[in-house]
Amino acid sequence: MAERICVGDRLPFFLYDTPYSARNRFRDLLQASAPLVVVFMANFGHPITRTFASRYADTYAALHDGGFALVVRSRADKLSRSIGPDTLPYPLLCDAAGVLYEHLAIPTSKSTLMSYSLEGWRILREAKKQGYQPVKGAEQQLPLTLILDRDGTVLFCHYGASLTDVPEDCAAIQSLLEELELTPDYEEAGVPPYAEPEAAMAAESHPRAHHGRRAPEDTGGFQPVRQIREYTVPDLEKTSMFGLFDDPYDEN
């Protein structure tokens, strides 16, 4: 049985699908966006997942000092008709088989009362007004929030106690990065806090990734971790399409 991941552990590299591209390397996402905040939630058809996916998209501009990715238990081919590369400002990783969820020991809950917060009940109530019909007795996928360094090392880890126990939006994610002192500064570039302006300008001229970390080509001697786990992904060009969004909450 898989054990929960902890701060200091390293997440293995893997390949992942999005609704608009197949077999992407998680290694590349880390290199481009670290510190990378990864939120694991239920399938994309769940009203709570939809609500938070929209919040993260609407507030994405508030995230200055890190990257963000959302993982859902949905099939990429079922989402590909409606979610293109320009639909969301962040990557949407699809793991319908739940391989990552199992590897990280992200729990599910059979108790609807325990898995829904007050906010969750409010979201569910509004979704029912729009036609959402939850499956009675179905297990509820609880969330997980991770912050990862560029080599996959876990810098922060929080297993959610309810379906809404994740960062509220990207402004909250930015605040979390600041509280954990994971935002870039001059000291990261080797410049003392009170350096002369010329030194500071030289440091800022060093190539950096768009989220503030050093550019991927500056690895500082980093040795990649052996890729030890990949999950099967479909060829999106050969899979059939489904009219998922005829019912915005239908995932079956």
Essential attributes:
8 helices, 15% strand, Glutaredoxin, two-stranded antiparallel ribbon, 252 residues, five-stranded mixed β-sheet, alpha/beta, 9 strands, disordered C terminus
How would you describe what is shown here?
This protein has 252 residues and is an alpha/beta fold. It has a single domain (15-246), classed as Glutaredoxin. It is built from 8 helices and 9 strands. It is globular.
Write a concise synopsis of the structure shown.
This protein is an alpha/beta fold.
Strand content range: 15-25%
Mean pLDDT: 79
CATH superfamily: Glutaredoxin
Number of domains: 1
- CATH C-level class is Alpha Beta
Helix content: 25-40%
Largest sheet: 5 strands, mixed
What's the SSE pattern? EEHEHEHEHEHHEEEHH
> In total, how many beta strands?
9
Spatial order of strands in the largest sheet = 5-4-3-8-9
Overall outline: globular
Q: What class do helices, strands and sheet pairing give?
A: alpha/beta
Number of helices: 8
How widely separated are the two ends? 28 Å
**Annotated CATH topology:** Glutaredoxin
Radius of gyration: 19 Å
Low-confidence stretches: 186-252
Which architecture name does CATH use?
Answer: 3-Layer(aba) Sandwich
